[in-house]
UniProtKB/TrEMBL annotation:
Pathway(s) the chain acts in: Alkaloid degradation; nicotine degradation
Record-level Gene Ontology MF annotations: 2 iron, 2 sulfur cluster binding; metal ion binding; oxidoreductase activity
Keyword Iron-sulfur: yes
Upper lineage: Bacteria, Bacillati, Bacillota, Bacilli, Bacillales
Domain of life: Bacteria
Gene3D superfamilies, A to Z: 3.10.20.30, [2Fe-2S]-binding domain
Species for this entry: Chengkuizengella marina
Protein name (database record): (2Fe-2S)-binding protein
Annotated SUPFAM superfamilies: 2Fe-2S ferredoxin-like, CO dehydrogenase ISP C-domain like
Keywords assigned by UniProt, alphabetized: 2Fe-2S, Iron, Iron-sulfur, Metal-binding, Oxidoreductase
One Pfam match: Fer2_2
Annotated 2Fe-2S ferredoxin-type domain residues: 9-85
Length: 161
């Protein structure tokens, strides 16, 4: 995938609060660079056209489907992958509420749900349902995922009291 010709670029990406240097072709997607260039395999390839959400990463606080973004577009932005959300309340809540089955879609859901909670810390059902529409799970229903999100929102609200 990474040929050694003069059209390659050496770029620096801020991923999980760490500056990482990587050689890319201008046409490489952020997904391919994250997985193959940087070895962060938690971000999953799925449909490669932005429908499934398995490849979702956080870019400057916005959940983005990394299969649709060029790696060069990530220069100067703060990118967070699932590896950057270890031991966060959202991740722990997914485990506690069994909000996964096979787990393939889970990293994208956790990234998306973390961004949802950051943008809408008191999200109601309608907002949660709207945000969950951007990711697809083929194994289970979304009830456990909704419960996981709601438990984090409730816990954050109780902390503020």
């Amino acid at each position: 995938m990474y040929s050694s010709n003069s059209k390659n670029l050496n770029i620096s990406l801020s991923i999980n609060d760490e500056e990482r240097s990587v050689v890319v072709r201008p046409a490489n997607t952020l997904l391919s660079v994250i997985r193959e260039g940087l070895g962060l395999t938690g971000t999953k390839p799925g449909c490669y056209n932005g429908d499934c959400g398995a490849c979702t990463v956080d870019v400057d606080g916005v959940p983005i489907k990394s299969c649709l973004m060029l790696a060069v577009e990530g220069v100067g932005k703060k990118i967070t992958t699932i590896e950057g959300l270890r031991n966060t309340p959202v991740q722990k809540s997914f485990v506690e509420h069994f909000a996964f089955q096979c787990g393939y879609c889970t990293p994208g859901f956790i990234i998306n749900c973390n961004a949802l909670i950051q943008k809408h810390p008191n999200a109601k059902d309608e907002i949660i349902e709207e945000w969950l529409e951007s990711n697809i799970c083929r194994c289970t229903g979304y009830k456990e995922i909704e419960e996981a999100i709601k438990s984090v929102i409730t816990a954050k609200s109780e902390e503020q009291l």
